[in-house]
Amino acid sequence: MKYKIQLLALITLALFACRKDKSKVDGPSISEIFSDFKVAETFKCSKDSVNFNKGETAFFTARFNKIVKWTITIQGNTSKAIKIINGESKAINASNSSWNGSTSVFPMFAKEFCLAKLKVKDITDSFTTNVRISNTKKLEGVIVADFETGLNAKWTRFAQSGANMDFQIKTDAFAPQGKSYLNMAGTVNWDYLIGLMDFPGNAYSAAPTFPLPTNPESVYFNCLIYGVNNTNTSLVLFQFKEDENADGIINANNEDEYDYQVTVDWVGWKLISIKYSDIVTLVNGSPASAKGNGLHNPDKIGKISMLHLANPNNGFASSKLDLMMFTLNKPLEP
User: Fold this and answer.
1) What structural domains and CATH numbers belong to the chain?
2) In Å, what is the CA distance from 31 to each residue of 24, 25, 28?
3) Mean pLDDT of the chain
4) How far apart, in whole angstroms, are the C-alpha atoms of residue 286 and residue 263?
5) Exposed (0-12), middle (13-18) or buried (19+): which is 27, by Cβ within 10 Å?
6) pLDDT confidence of residue 32
7) pTM to 2 decimals?
8) How far apart are CA 76 and CA 135, in angstroms?
9) Residue 115 above 60 pLDDT?
């Protein structure tokens, strides 16, 4: 009898242990899900003016009566640059809406007033607030070329003598950052090469190589490339030529070259980023063995060559180039 009582007590305790605490609710309640959307706290920006160059950030705030999917779209009044922030929550705050001045859709932001618009899914109304950029986001890294001051005297440029050739720096509304970029275009029906530009390491430091650290895992190469609609597909090839003995001479027979080829199959500006250790040696577009020590040594890059290529059988090709730069530890966030 005593055994049966103990067994019954254990079963009773087990049943109570398995019973769900009705006071605890996982996710929104039924009444909340089917309630009408209401704004509990209006949409605002944490700052009227923000200096991104000093590392400042801004965030947005709002609060609703239930969890909703929302999108904040920030657009520069002058540049028309766009930053998009998405979330799903009952409140918008610093944890889910912080903005460091970066861009989602080029061009990049300028010193300007911006309009931030909040849109909640399935809600017709939108909500707006304003914020002024007193100074733009600082680009940290080693800039190879942004073309803002024209051609560096130590760069070398070559363009074929084809038809409708244009291998010049342009200053117009197409620029994704600053005011200038390199325009590359032409018809060359006998060769893949349309034009090229060499950027030697001694243009950036007293040494014959670029001022970069030794660890290839920490170095990223970045570039903005513009794809032009309805033209022959452009190929942009970057060649990183290492001066392994630091004698100021690149020897293709016994020093490493790593190559990164980009097929420009989009329209508009796009950010390209790649870790230096992930770049391979190419021969006629196919992976091959490096001819030097076979090690990625970013601190020994003595020259970067940029080639604009296109299939000679397919006619006119065009693309644009801007903001070639190295960043450390992470890709560029423009």
Assistant:
1) 30-135 (2.60.40.10), 142-328 (2.60.120.430)
2) 15, 12, 8
3) 92
4) 14
5) exposed
6) 65
7) 0.86
8) 13
9) yes
